[in-house]
Automatic annotation (TrEMBL):
The lineage of its organism: Bacteria, Pseudomonadati, Pseudomonadota, Gammaproteobacteria, Pseudomonadales. The gene is pepQ. Belongs to the peptidase M24B family. Bacterial-type prolidase subfamily. It comes from Marinobacter flavimaris. This is Xaa-Pro dipeptidase. Its EC number is 3.4.13.9. NCBIfam families: PRK13607.1. PANTHER family: XAA-PRO AMINOPEPTIDASE 3, XAA-PRO DIPEPTIDASE.
Length: 428
């Protein structure tokens, strides 16, 4: 999408946010709202701070990730006011804002102080943000009922948000292609990470989350957090779960690649990919997201049976006996937005058969979700199954050969449209 069109959508987005926020404030009896962008806390016993990306509601309005000690004031019938922290400081540079149309909608002021602004009329004021930074400010701090309603304003994305998410997908896909090429060229996990960053042009600290890059058995650790600097003796598999932040919005994409000698594992990847596409096609208004999760288990049971990993049970029995939950222990996905696991996904607790599911809502147009089935060989889950009564149904020899590949996850970012869905990852 051309920049001018995107910037025009941003102005519409801000008008919509103003209306949504004014409605929420009126509902709870507040005249205005002060939003703190936040700041990175210092590490204990150190003079260095953690990496910082910003508070969700602040990003929802501004997209300015990484801007500390900023404040945004929202009032009914008035322009929002944004105070940008720009200290007179010879230690650090102040990043200038590009001239864009949104600055005609929001009044931007510069502040050399990290302290909250003194407001003309703090009566009936709500203040939201990190409690450690707002404790001494007049007004009601983080009122729970208001926060719940503000979270709801992020559930259905505006056209601007969707296009930002689409661009975050485009950038991340270039990184995934580079990562795959680096893997096939024999790079280490560290080298693959460098290839991903080079292709996306985004530093690790700016990415929406720490990229998961696991070779071989490391792919079976769901949130594997290390990077080996040396390649393994035999490269059997790569699982990379990595995204990009664009104007505050996150992509969250996972791909799995088999090594040249792993034909059986490659067949499993192909089968899971076909299942994942069918699950993405289920995304539509009115669909219960939990049903997509359960359909994933049914499809996984069919895949386990077809590939000979499980025998002697029909697909329904494989699911009912909990075997699919050993190979696929997490939920099918979550909301996506200015946070990777975006808010308001669980108005009701997840069901007993999906305890880790992060989204339990019926889908509506404008929601953006991830669809990410997996098939893993996790020793801590597999070994008790093999040693128990259900072990008779598992192909021990085949599982033993595939353990060293770790596992598979395939993840796309999907928008619910009025008529169905738009896959931001595959259908750009």
């Amino acid at each position: 999408m051309p920049d001018d069109a995107l910037l025009s959508l941003q102005t519409d987005h801000l008008k919509e946010l103003q209306a949504r926020y004014e409605s929420a404030l009126a509902e709870h009896g507040y005249d205005s709202l002060l939003i703190a962008s936040g700041a990175a806390p210092y590490r204990y016993g150190d003079d260095q701070a953690w990496h910082f990306q910003g508070y969700g509601p602040f990003l929802h309005w501004t997209g300015l990730a990484g801007r500390e000690h900023c404040w945004l004031w929202i009032r009914a019938g008035h322009k929002p006011v944004l105070w940008l922290f720009e200290p007179v400081d010879f230690w650090h540079a102040n990043s200038p804002l590009a001239e864009e149309p949104w600055q005609q909608f929001i009044e931007v002021r510069s502040s050399a102080s990290p302290e909250a602004p003194l407001l003309d009329d703090p009566e009936s004021l709500a203040v939201i943000g990190d409690p450690a930074l707002i404790s001494n400010i007049p007004g009601e701090k983080n009122p729970e009922a208001l926060l719940r309603d503000l979270d709801e304003t992020r559930v259905c994305k505006t056209p601007y948000e969707i296009e930002c998410l689409a661009q975050a997908n485009r950038l991340a896909l270039a990184g995934h292609a580079a990562a795959r090429d680096a893997f096939l060229a024999g790079e280490s996990e560290f080298g693959i990470n460098l290839a991903y960053q080079q292709a996306t042009g985004q530093r690790e600290a700016e990415a929406p989350y720490h990229s998961i890059i696991g070779l071989n058995e490391h792919a079976g650790t769901l949130h594997y957090q290390y990077y080996d600097t040396q390649p393994p003796g035999q490269t059997r598999s790569l699982l990379i779960d990595a995204g990009v932040r664009f104007r505050g919005y996150c992509s969250d994409i996972t791909r799995t690649t088999a090594g040249p000698e792993e034909s059986h594992f490659a067949a499993l990847i192909h089968g899971l990919d076909r299942l994942q596409v069918r699950l993405c096609d289920m995304v539509a208004p009115g669909v219960d997201y939990i049903d997509i999760h359960r359909k994933a288990h049914q499809g996984l049971a069919a895949l386990l049976s077809a590939t000979g990993l499980v025998t002697g049970l029909d697909d329904e029995g494989i699911v009912e006996k909990g075997i699919t939950r050993v190979f696929f222990p997490h939920g099918i996905g979550h909301f996506l937005g200015v946070q990777v696991h975006d808010v308001a996904g669980k108005p009701t607790p997840p069901p007993d058969d999906a305890p880790f599911l992060r989204l339990t809502r019926r889908l509506e147009p404008g929601m953006v979700v991830t669809i990410e089935p997996g098939l893993y060989f996790i020793p801590s889950l597999l070994d008790p199954l093999l040693e128990g009564e259900l072990g008779q149904y598992l192909n021990r020899e085949l599982i033993g050969r595939l353990r060293g590949c770790g596992g598979i996850r395939i993840e796309d970012n999907v928008v619910v449209t009025d008529a169905g869905s738009r896959n931001l990852t595959r259908g750009l």
